[in-house]
Specification:
Layout: E1 2-5, E2 17-23, E3 26-27, E4 42-43, E5 46-52, E6 56-60, H1 66-77, E7 82-87, H2 99-105, E8 110-113, H3 115-121, H4 124-133, E9 148-149, E10 154-157, E11 160-168, E12 175-180, E13 185-187, E14 193-194, H5 205-220, E15 225-227, E16 230-231, H6 240-258, H7 262-272, H8 279-299
Parallel strand pairs: 6-7, 7-8, 8-9, 13-15, 14-16
Antiparallel strand pairs: 1-2, 2-5, 3-4, 5-6, 10-11, 11-12, 12-13
């Protein structure tokens, strides 16, 4: 957990504080047989960011399970502010399913999301996915609380403007991030990662290139604080994670182009990033990349002329 106050950023007026709570990584239910070291079913640590003034607070993203939300809610209660809204950066359930429990703990709180994010939130296939991963631990059916439509591009917090930026491609399409100019802070959702392996299962080569370009837009804001949606619990929120995430994506794309098996991809990525958390994620991403290459072979588009490399195409949908 890291706290930044308006006194910590030269351009920020007195009034807002940003705190980050990170739920530790945990196991999930899976019938799949691990294919190698680190492939045990493990969910990455997930952050939730509280921005608050003298009286009110806005939370950015919320973890999925009841136990995780209760721990987060206990922490929020120590701040002594009224939680007015929970902003959801993108449609993956590990960033919004906990709204139901949060509404129980903080009656009157409202979830907010863009129209594009709401489309993913309402996808019934994703609902079944999350219920299978965390059986009995997440809300189902009528017990779920969905975000409401965000009208406009800003959220007001005691006269301070929280800006919603529709960035598009991150680890899923139609992603957003929140910019807090008065704190020189950016809450990225899953656009940036912080020393946790990046989930690229929904991003082919072209999508990863766009993802890298979108991170340039975050860097252009010259933030002093950059919060990743998935981060090591002990890590701070240093802007260096922007370039680190970009380099990881470049390395992953290069390795995928050169290797023909998931195990080979994982081995090379882990060699470069030995201290990054949750290698299960890179196993998933590597399998998705190989599946794309195999699909291209079947379609007869496989090898790039003279290069002997199989092209990737299109996202393979998966929440996470």
């Amino acid at each position: 957990m890291e706290t930044v106050t308006s006194d910590d950023t030269a351009q920020a007026p007195v009034g807002l504080t940003i705190d980050v709570y990170t739920s530790p990584g945990r196991t999930f239910t899976s019938a799949a047989i691990p294919e190698g070291p680190g492939d045990d079913p493990t969910w990455s640590p997930s952050s939730a960011t509280l921005i608050y003034g003298e009286h009110d607070a806005v939370l950015v993203d919320v973890p999925p399970t009841h136990v995780q939300v209760d721990a987060l809610a206990d922490w929020i209660e120590t701040k002594g502010r009224r939680l007015s809204h929970v902003y959801i950066t993108h449609g993956h359930g590990d960033h919004w399913l906990g709204l139901a429990r949060m509404a129980q703990r903080f009656p009157g709180v409202t979830g907010l999301a863009t129209a594009e994010v709401l489309t993913l939130v309402n996808d019934p296939a994703f609902a079944r996915y999350w219920e299978a991963l965390f059986p009995g631990e997440v809300p189902t059916g009528a017990d779920k609380v969905l975000p409401q439509l965000l009208t406009g591009d800003t959220i007001d917090l005691e006269g301070n403007e929280l800006r919603v930026i529709r960035i598009g491609q991150a680890d899923t399409a139609h992603s957003t991030f929140l910019h807090v100019p008065s704190l020189a802070a950016v809450v990225t959702g899953d656009l940036a990662y912080n020393e946790v392996h990046m989930m690229t299962g929904e991003a082919g080569e072209a999508e990863r290139a766009q993802w890298i370009a979108n991170l340039d837009e975050v860097a252009a804001l010259d933030p002093a604080v950059v919060v990743a949606g998935h981060k090591k619990v002990e890590n701070g929120d240093d802007p260096k994670i922007i370039e680190e995430s970009q380099q990881y994506l470049r390395d992953f794309s290069r390795i995928v182009a050169e290797e023909g098996t998931a195990a080979a991809i994982v081995a090379r990525v882990v060699e470069i990033y030995p201290d990054w958390g949750n290698p299960h994620t890179i196993w998933y991403s590597a399998r998705a990349a190989i599946a794309r290459k195999d699909r291209r072979r079947v379609e007869g588009v496989g090898a790039e002329a003279g290069a002997g490399k199989d092209a990737e195409a299109g996202p393979i949908r998966r929440a996470g």
